[in-house]
Design goal:
The strands form 4 sheets. The chain has a 6-stranded mixed β-sheet with strand order 9-8-10-11-12-13, with helices on both faces. Strands 4-3-6-5 form a 4-stranded mixed β-sheet, with helices on one face. Strands 1-2 form a two-stranded antiparallel ribbon. The protein starts with a strand and ends in an 8-residue tail after the last strand. The longest helix has 14 residues. The chain has 8 helices and 14 strands. A hairpin with a 2-residue loop joins strand 12 and strand 13.
Length: 283
């Protein structure tokens, strides 16, 4: 069966002191080939675990499915190697009858790495996938004090990061109560988000109105696009957003918050959803 962590002998060096040889725990990174109805769609580098969620979320992000009923079955392919061993690294998803198969133009022309969820897109136009949901009219208003508690809640849920220090994380929160609905970890920040969205679509929760997507990394365009595809109105990040993420959030009516550190945060788009009496513009 797949492993989430692995042990490796390391040499720890500190200048001026003797080197130390010991075991260390690393996060596993392995390829996952995702097939749809028997046809290869993409290969991504991921941390094994919640692979069905990853595949379901990926299909939502690509505009292929929008409900749990569309995700009919999923199974690991036996005999993926020459000697017939099941590596648990090839996953075949069967779509429900009547659900259109992915357009061939969506197939990735090369490997998607753990740092890039858009690598291999045939064209930049294909990136701006049309969503079945709109976030612009979502009436959610999040209290800034409540929002500021989300990074610590996410950090507390990062069990594998605690052992390895080498994983990204994403979590979905109820924007009104602050309840954490689900959290996922992965070597790829885009995979962590897909795992969260995949859990939600399998639970038939889409669109994710009234929720906040919290990520432990920077907020790139690809994460904003994935949030939009799932109908998530607020994307919050521990680190900085990219310029394209901010432009995209403004364009679709999403709220984008970055640099969440303690009681401070920076709002880059959609400030109407952040409630704070003392909120003042700064130069």
């Amino acid at each position: 069966m797949t492993r989430i962590t692995a042990r490796r002998k390391i040499i720890r060096v500190k200048l001026g002191e003797s080197s130390v040889i010991r075991d260390d725990v690393l996060a596993v990174e392995e390829p996952l080939e995702m097939r749809v109805n028997g046809r290869s769609l993409a290969v991504t580098m991921r941390t094994p675990g919640h692979d069905f969620d990853l595949a379901a979320g990926f299909l939502v992000s690509e505009g292929i499915i929008t409900t749990g009923e569309h995700f009919f079955t999923a199974r690991y392919c036996a005999g993926a190697t020459a000697d017939g061993v099941n590596t648990y690294n090839v996953l075949d998803v069967t779509l429900a009858p009547g659900v259109a198969a992915p357009d061939p133009s969506l197939e990735r022309s090369f490997l998607t790495t753990s740092s890039c969820g858009l690598c291999g897109k045939a064209s930049i136009d294909a990136v701006r996938t049309k969503s079945a949901f709109s976030v612009d009219e979502d009436p959610l208003v999040v209290d800034a004090g409540l929002l500021s508690t989300f990074p610590d809640k996410l950090r507390a849920a990062q069990a594998v990061f605690e052992k390895t220090g080498g994983l990204h994380a994403a979590a979905l929160f109820d924007g009104t109560t602050g309840e954490m609905l689900v959290a996922r970890e992965d070597v790829g920040r885009h995979n962590a988000v897909d795992k969260v969205i995949g859990w939600a679509v399998k639970e038939n929760r889409l669109p994710l109105a009234g929720t906040v997507l919290m990520v432990s990394s920077r907020a790139s365009f690809e994460l904003a696009q994935k949030a939009m595809m799932a109908g998530i109105p607020v994307l919050a990040a521990v680190s900085a957003p990219s310029s394209l993420a901010a432009e995209f959030a403004t364009e679709v009516g999403m709220t984008l918050v970055g640099f969440m550190r303690g009681s401070s945060m920076v709002i880059y788009a959609g400030d109407k959803r952040i409630a704070q009496d003392a909120l003042q513009p700064v130069d």
